[in-house]
Specification:
CATH topology of the largest domain: Quinone Oxidoreductase, Chain A, domain 1
Number of strands: 17
Radius of gyration: 20 Å
Order of helices and strands: EEEHEEEHEEEHHEHEHEEHEEHEHE
Structural class: alpha/beta
Distance between the termini: 21 Å
Strand content: 25-35%
Bound molecules: zinc ion
């Protein structure tokens, strides 16, 4: 990118002007990598439910205008000053945690996922619904060769957040997954590889999701309002539906844990203390750390994860978001850039 042409290159991007309005296809200048940043030629970017929460205005104070997208796979095209990770041409993934301050109490305590001054890709900093992007090199990941670009994209958030949620579930043998979409279908495969039993709770009436869960090795699949066939040791909630919290509490055994993995959820209805008593717990999962990413990708190198994906051209991002909002996606939509 060095040289006189650097400032005049253009790219296509889908941009959010204001929450609650559709993304707009724009012709924008290619960004320049600042100190510590890499310039990435984006090959594809998966669509996450969090993108929907950003676009719909359910998360406060996004950067505006904003290029969404935080499950980015591409190749390094240029290095900004001071970058000592990655070489030009290396394949990288960019996740939700775009940067952390490194100095707050949380960062210093190994909990950069809770950083006081973070930057989130595709939310507070521009993301990957574009042909090019820049990212802080320290927060990018190398991606195992066994995954092609499109298969790898959902690993960057559905996989990573799912992995963190699974770790929060401890050593649960009987594991419930509520909401069987992009994250759950990855977690189910890791859980199976770890010898756990997966119980899939799907949107009532969604037979395709139930079949999908069973095809990935779930021992049981049924509607989310049904009682669990066996007491569970833990349950992870991927669906942003507060009413599932008491449902999951009822499904876990004494000492069981309910892990809420989403960034946003509708209000949780009141429930009797008796379903929390006996040391049941409710916890949430926020963001990710780089250690999660290193752990997850090391595991993904050995456990072959099949990601269910559907390629969607960048310019049709609004249609992909609409289908996710309506629950009409099995697995993950992956936006592909022109030429890929
Ligand atoms: Zn911090
Ligand atoms: Zn995400």
């Amino acid at each position: 990118m060095a040289g006189s042409s650097a400032g005049c290159r253009r790219m296509q991007a889908m941009q959010l002007d204001w929450p609650g309005t559709p993304l707009v296809l724009r012709d924008l200048p290619v960004p320049q990598p600042g100190p510590g940043e890499i310039l990435i030629r984006v090959h594809c970017c998966a669509v996450c439910r969090t993108d929907l929460h950003v676009v719909d205005g359910e998360l406060p104070d996004p950067k505006l205008p904003l290029i969404p997208g935080h499950e980015i796979v591409g190749k390094v095209a240029a290095l900004g000053p001071g970058v000592d990770r990655f070489a030009v041409g290396a394949r990288v993934g960019v996740p939700w945690l775009g940067r952390a301050c490194g100095t707050c109490t949380f960062c210093r305590g190994g909990r950069e996922n809770l950083c006081d001054a973070p930057g989130f890709t595709g939310y507070t900093i521009d993301g990957g619904y574009a042909e090019w992007t820049v990212a802080d090199a320290r927060f990018c990941f190398a991606i195992p060769d066994r995954y092609d670009d499109v298969a790898a994209a959902p690993l960057l958030c559905a996989g990573l957040i799912g992995y963190r949620a699974l770790r929060k579930a401890g050593d649960a043998r009987r594991l419930g997954l509520y909401g069987f979409g992009a994250a759950a279908h990855i977690v189910a495969q890791i859980a199976r590889a770890e010898g756990r039993e997966v119980y899939a709770f799907v949107r009532p009436g969604d037979a395709a999701a139930a079949d999908f869960a069973l095809s990935l090795g779930a021992v049981w699949a049924g509607p989310s309002d049904a009682p669990a066939p066996d007491p569970l040791d833990a349950a992870i909630l991927f669906a942003p539906v507060g009413a599932l919290v008491p449902a999951a509490l009822r499904a876990v055994a004494k000492g069981g844990r309910v892990v809420a993995a989403g960034i946003h959820m509708s209000d949780i209805p009141s429930f009797p203390y008796s379903i929390l008593w006996q040391e049941r717990e409710i916890v949430s999962v926020a963001n990710l750390t780089r250690a999660d990413g290193e752990g997850f990708f090391a595991l993904a190198e050995h456990v072959p994860i099949r990601t269910e994906t559907e390629r969607v051209p960048l310019a049709q991002a609004n249609a992909a978001l609409d289908r996710l909002r309506a629950g009409r996606l099995t697995g993950a939509a992956v936006l592909t850039m022109p030429g890929f």
